[in-house]
Design goal:
The complex is a heterotrimer.
Chain A: H1 3-7, H2 10-30, E1 35-39, E2 51-57, E3 60-67, H3 75-80, H4 84-91, H5 100-114, H6 120-149, H7 154-173, E4 182-183, E5 186-187, H8 195-218, H9 221-227, H10 235-241, H11 246-249, H12 257-260, H13 282-305, E6 325-333, E7 336-344, E8 352-356, H14 358-362, H15 366-369, H16 375-385, H17 389-393
Antiparallel strand pairs in A: 1-2, 2-3, 4-5, 6-7, 7-8
Chain B: H1 2-16, H2 22-56, H3 72-81, H4 93-111, H5 128-136, H6 138-149, H7 153-184, H8 189-198, H9 211-214, H10 216-229, H11 241-244, H12 254-279, H13 302-327, H14 333-361
Chain C: H1 6-24, E1 45-48, H2 58-62, E2 68-77, E3 87-98, H3 107-111, E4 117-120, E5 134-135, H4 137-142
Antiparallel strand pairs in C: 1-4, 2-3, 3-5
Classes of the chains: A mainly alpha, B mainly alpha, C alpha+beta.
């Protein structure tokens, strides 16, 4: 057995052979060597420390592979030695742009194990905050899209209008980026006075922002020529690679966990629509996210009108020991489907938490998708797939 | 040629009651050249890059350095000067160090031929515009040198993209200018200015005859071509900040990067000056307002007011360039090339055909 | 009227924002000349009310970072009334919060059974040396002056029992 056979596993061996084959094909065709370009880990285009090893033939990609793990913080290991409130704090930081959304599936899993349901008011407000974090997350995506394409102005609009949402979250929870607000059995605190009126005003501003982005970016012919037809993911490929969220819906699959997986949250109390797009290209993914942001503002508006009154916390003991068992809960997070598999042995903290994060599965499609595209298209495709490094690496 | 400016400086000497020796005049000329390049650069950087871009993004821009941030450029220059001068180990050091200078030299050579007043010019070539277009292509060489010598794959990609793009967009620029030359009947920039200001549109001489009115197609093509020559969005593939970090400028730090940075805006300023000379009437106001008929009857005070008018017109053109830069995403390299070869060149060729027909007929 | 190309509309948006900034002012706050005040609940810094603290160690135990350092000793206090037994009280020797480690999660404030820890929206306490970010008992007591009243709750909320 050669050195490579002994040291590498099966998958790695196959990848190595594929890259050698790509190289030799290049060498035969052009009698020149291809160029291996490392995109990242420090790079403006990768949203964080992602490394994409691309073998280029001029400006065309022959072979690409993502290499993640530069931001691995060991969440699942950390969770083994922390109590439930402490894990909730940590888990905020996985997808740091829409951080309330990370807490929710974890808390729901723990509540499932405890057989406790949060009171209606808590469920309602949880859903409102969840949608607010979706808006915060995706509005940054819309701005970032501009920067990746070269338009430097939309990102400032995005930050300007996202600021309102962050101020809302801070008013309610005390933290702009890391609310740490969800507790087993309900929420930590109730909403401060005037929050509902303020939120309604902010939702109006966000709809204006969506219109502005549509005019400035989506209507721009250059943007359309950069994104239409680029990075097409057919429906069955999307399903087989485990994509989720807007990436899946942009390939024509009508799948939204908020509607399809019933959970003790208030999504079924509002009237909203699931947006899909048949094309599956980069434009479709960006467009679906824009529409989802608008839809999220509508959900928040409707839910704000119908918040039931009552307690914000169910009757749970002060020191919570979750009974033995295993539970899996996944929700439709801003980035896709995020789920937690919590194993409990009846103690103050979980025994084992497995985190299924959306971006990890979303970028698994990049080797398949990036073959044959130009270098600028790599940036477009990565921008439209939209991942957060904290979500990939945990 | 040289005599006229010398006589002007002699006039200045007469005003100051002192005889300026020849070396003094040359020194003043050199300083004038430096000012003619750096003043537009500095103004464009402050007004458009620092302030206009910020205002378009709902923020105020630099406010701390000087009143309303006016000394920010001085602070930036100081900052870049005190940075370490890094030459990558495997870079071709001599070419690496020469590249920014080549780019800047082409800008200085270009401004030598721009007239600022009836007697306030550096050189007055008979083939002024031909020289200008030839010399503006030097910067392509500098960018290629920077991209290749940096020993960096990103810089190489940027340099190669720049080579393709800049050469492709030279042609529409030249062809757009040919329309102006046909209409003016001369390649001499000073005479093009006079032709615009002394001319009349269908007998109405109140506005002169700025070529932007008749050569509007040429103006549009020229503006697009300048946008591409300056590697500004939507044609900034060579720099492509989100992909190539900084393209051919990636490995440069300190003073060398400053030369690239100032060079970029200085070239923007000089191209805007050129556009205002070719299309907007240059340093002049319509002669009919003052009762002048040709270049010799223009009063002397125009030599002092001319540069001010030039700066104003330059700012107008630069405003358009920068406005488009801040509002557009960038085109991909092959889309860029397709646009230049399949759209701009046929359009400008058509413009030349129509202009020639009109010139012969009228 | 032919459709205006998207490029031109985009130019209109930026020009519109330019005029808006010139006439109505920018969206940014020129810190440090002007400062925004954070909401009441903002998690800026933790303040300690020493009188309430019994060094039960619940906060130190529940901190995910273990950034609270508590040392205390037991003392005998005089009896509450004549002829009674002397009571044992916990006296606090050291209560440090290391803000270089603190994650600003608020679990310590939440679990304290004696209401000794409070959130304050103060955020301007950065130091040139990391070691100075360890706030001791006295400094934490000073932050008490900046603690705001708890905000009123929205309509429909249950009245708080305590």
């Amino acid at each position: 057995m050669s050195v490579t056979d002994r040291l590498l596993g099966d998958r790695q061996r196959l990848a190595y052979i594929a890259s050698q084959a790509a190289d030799s094909r290049l060498n035969v065709e052009l009698e020149t060597e291809g160029m291996t370009l490392n995109i990242g880990p420090q790079h403006p285009a990768t949203h964080g420390t992602l490394r994409i090893i691309a073998r280029l033939d001029g400006e065309q990609v022959v072979w690409a592979e993502p290499s993640c793990g530069y931001m691995h913080r060991g969440y699942e290991k950390l969770a083994e030695v922390r109590t439930y409130p402490q894990v909730t704090t940590l888990v905020n930081r996985i997808d740091w742009l829409g951080s309330f959304a990370n807490e929710v599936p974890f808390i729901l899993a723990a509540e499932k194990l405890m057989d406790v349901e949060a009171p209606a008011r808590a469920q309602h407000i949880r859903t409102i905050l969840f949608e607010l974090s979706r808006i915060a997350n995706v509005s940054l995506f819309l701005g970032d899209l501009g920067v990746q394409m070269g338009a430097i102005t939309p990102v400032f609009f995005a930050f300007r209008d996202r600021e309102y949402v962050l101020n809302l979250i801070e008013g309610a929870t005390g933290g702009r980026f890391h609310p740490n607000f969800d507790r087993i059995g309900g929420l930590k605190d109730d909403l401060p006075k005037g929050w509902i009126a303020e939120t309604k005003a902010v939702m109006k501003k966000l709809r204006t922002f969506c219109d502005q982005i549509e005019e400035l970016l989506f209507g721009n012919e250059i943007f359309q020529s950069r994104t239409r037809g680029i990075g097409v993911i057919p429906r069955d490929v999307a399903l087989s690679f485990g994509l989720s969220g807007a990436n899946l819906r942009a390939s024509g699959v009508d799948w939204d966990l908020r509607r399809d997986h019933p959970l003790p949250m208030a999504w079924n109390k509002a009237d909203w629509k699931v947006w899909t797009h048949p094309d599956g290209d980069s434009f479709a993914r960006c467009w679906v996210r824009l529409q989802e942001t608008r839809e999220a503002t509508k959900i928040v508006d409707q839910l704000l009108d119908t918040i039931p009154s009552g307690p914000i916390m169910a009757k749970v003991p002060k020191i919570i020991k979750v009974p033995e068992g295993e539970a899996w809960v996944s929700t439709e997070n801003p980035l896709g489907e995020m789920g937690y598999y919590v194993v409990s042995r009846g103690e103050l903290g979980p025994f084992r938490v497995k985190i299924r994060s959306a971006s990890f599965n979303n970028i698994s499609i990049t080797p398949w998708l990036l073959r044959g595209v130009y270098v600028p298209d790599i940036v477009t495709i990565l921008a439209s797939l939209y991942f957060i490094l904290g979500d990939i690496d945990r | 040629m040289i005599g006229t400016l010398a006589s002007q400086l002699g006039l200045l000497g007469g005003l100051l009651a002192v005889e300026i020796p020849y070396w003094g005049q040359s020194l003043l000329r050199v300083l004038g050249g430096a000012v003619a390049v750096l003043l537009p650069a500095g103004t464009i950087v402050y007004v458009f890059l620092f302030k206009m871009m910020s205002f378009m993004q709902s923020r105020l821009g630099p406010m701390e350095a000087g009143p309303y941030g006016s000394l920010q450029l001085v602070a930036e220059v100081g900052k870049w000067l005190q940075k370490e001068d890094i030459v990558p180990e495997r870079a071709d050091a001599r070419i690496f160090k020469m590249a920014p200078i080549v780019v800047l030299v082409s800008t200085f050579l270009l401004v030598a031929v721009v007239p600022f007043g009836p007697d306030a010019w550096f050189t007055n070539f008979e083939v002024g515009i031909f020289y200008a277009l030839a010399v503006s292509s030097l910067s392509v060489l500098g960018i290629l040198m920077a991209g290749w010598a940096s020993a960096n794959k990103y810089s190489l990609l940027g340099g190669l993209r720049a080579a393709g793009q800049l050469i492709a967009y030279e042609l529409p620029m030249v062809l757009a200018v040919v329309g102006v030359v046909i209409q003016a009947g001369t390649m001499n920039l000073q005479e093009i200015v006079v032709a615009q200001n002394a001319g009349s549109i269908f007998g109405f001489s109140g506005l002169g005859n700025p070529f932007i009115l008749t050569q509007f197609v040429g103006f549009a093509v020229f503006m697009v071509a300048i946008q591409a020559e300056l590697t500004q969005a939507p044609f900034d593939m060579p720099i492509a900040e989100s992909e190539l970090v900084s393209g051919y400028m990636t490995e440069y730090s300190g003073f060398r990067f400053l030369i690239f940075f100032i060079g970029e805006f200085a070239t923007a300023g000089v191209f805007s000056l050129l556009a205002s000379v070719l299309f907007l009437g240059g340093w002049g106001l319509p002669f009919a307002w003052f009762g002048w008929t040709d270049i010799d009857s223009v009063d002397n005070w125009m030599n002092l007011v001319g540069p001010v008018i030039m700066i104003t017109k330059m700012m107008l053109v630069a405003f358009i360039i920068m406005w488009v830069r801040f509002s557009s995403p960038r085109l991909r390299e092959d889309q860029l090339q397709r646009f230049a070869w399949k759209v701009l060149i046929p359009v400008s060729l058509g413009n030349i055909a129509v202009t020639s027909i009109f010139k012969v007929v009228m | 009227m032919a459709k205006v190309p998207g490029l031109v509309k985009g130019l209109g948006v930026t020009l519109g924002t330019l005029f808006e900034t010139v006439t109505k002012g920018a969206n940014t706050v020129q810190y440090p000349h002007e400062k925004e005040s954070p909401p009441t609940r903002a998690r800026g810094v933790i303040a300690l009310h020493e009188g309430n603290c019994t060094s039960c160690m619940l906060c130190a135990r529940s901190c995910p970072d273990w950034c609270i350092y508590i040392e205390g000793h037991k003392e005998l206090a005089p009896p509450r009334r004549e002829g009674g037994k002397p009571r044992q009280v916990n006296k606090l020797d050291r209560f440090d919060i290391d803000y270089a480690l603190c994650m600003y999660c608020g679990i310590c404030v939440e679990v304290c059974p004696f209401d000794a820890l409070f959130w304050s929206p103060e955020y301007e306490y950065s130091e040139p040396r990391i070691a100075d970010l360890l706030h001791d008992k006295a400094k934490l007591g000073e932050w008490m002056e900046t603690v705001p009243e708890a905000p009123e709750l929205e309509s429909g909320a249950e009245k708080k029992k305590k």
